């Protein structure tokens, strides 16, 4: 159980690093959505179900959508 | 030249971040507060202000503070309180079974009004700035997405309404309910290629909801001499018709947040052709 | 039960990763993504302040039964109430800043902050 928890936090850190270091902005935004989803699971483990529902609906759903729309209006690849 | 500049900047930033991290973790593992060790892992709710929110005796606590002065801070637990039983206890100061809801809407209702206003202002700014950005055509969605989004939309809407009507009994409330409704509209925007979201109607609904919020507060001002005071009887804890105006305000907040967020998403997707 | 030191460490690590991104990235949308990570970390920290070992979710239900001065079972609900609204406000400010980023791209033709300001 505890090992599973450490694995989840490892995925959290990897998704945050991936969101920062990748060149493709779309990959970065999807990694941000994964990050929000895992954080919402952590909120649930901390006995905060209200916050977990809000984070799952907003951080992983709507926030990703508005980032994707903004990338559609601009450019997908990060230039040198 | 460019590369070395970038590497130097990254090195300086890394040093800063590592120093800050050392500071944080040192503060976490050697906690000290006026010579005493700060209780990180065995916090007691009796040492916190939230004790009165949980036991719903805030009025008694403020009376106790006014008569006993600073002595209150040493014995918070001597404020009179009664045991609260689910489904039995009646006529409490605040009758919501969900403590988070009772803090957000009732004890700190003015704060919530301010935060809803911040959201309103940010969406106004978005609408104002997006003028002149043209829409880019999406690829035509497949049959499964078109049919599925038409089929799923009423259920998502119903789920959002359920979340904010039961905000005082189950986890949820106006903010997540509004977000779920906005995600339903997002599904329609993505799934149907000739769906037009009418932003004028949504803005009118949103303004009406905001006016209703302030109106409920003003009714409390005239009936109980305090803005956003609870003027409806609180009922038995755990029933749907309980908690007074909490359910009313959360319905209004849910409609307002849903309209605001769907306006924002629709304008970001479609651009604004009026400029 | 999980120790709260675990959650504190997670929040600190996430905050530091986000801070590093804000300091080093050149692309505007990347900076906004890093700010979002930082904001999530601060929310995690605030909820952890209210976490109590062996506590239950602060909702009175049929299974919990009753609470009183001598059987308090809940975690602290006050930070949760603050974070609940902070997440929604975060979405509003993110949307506004993304629109400003789109307008900057339309004006300068680039998202790189070091190349902005020269041509118009």
From TrEMBL, chain A:
It is found in: Cell membrane. Its main location: membrane. It is a multi-pass membrane protein. Coiled coil: none annotated. Residues 10-76 form the MrpA C-terminal/MbhD domain. GO terms for cellular component: plasma membrane. The chain crosses the membrane at residues 28-45, 52-71. Keywords: Cell membrane, Membrane, Transmembrane, Transmembrane helix. The keyword Transmembrane applies. Gene3D superfamilies: NADH-ubiquinone/plastoquinone oxidoreductase chain 6, subunit NuoJ. This is MrpA C-terminal/MbhD domain-containing protein.
From TrEMBL, chain B:
It comes from candidate division TA06 bacterium. This is Cation:proton antiporter. The chain crosses the membrane at residues 7-29, 112-130, 151-169, 175-192, 204-223, 229-253. It is a multi-pass membrane protein. It is found in: Cell membrane. Residues 144-262 form the Na+/H+ antiporter MnhB subunit-related protein domain. Keywords: Cell membrane, Membrane, Transmembrane, Transmembrane helix. Residues 90-126 form the MrpA C-terminal/MbhE domain. It comes from the Bacteria. Pfam families: MbhE, MnhB. Belongs to the CPA3 antiporters (TC 2.A.63) subunit B family. GO terms for cellular component: plasma membrane. NCBIfam families: PRK08386.1.
Automatic annotation (TrEMBL), chain C:
The chain crosses the membrane at residues 6-24, 31-52, 81-105. It is a multi-pass membrane protein. Keywords: Cell membrane, Membrane, Transmembrane, Transmembrane helix. GO terms for cellular component: plasma membrane. It is found in: Cell membrane. The keyword Cell inner membrane does not apply. The keyword Membrane applies. Pfam families: Oxidored_q2. Belongs to the CPA3 antiporters (TC 2.A.63) subunit C family. This is Cation:proton antiporter.
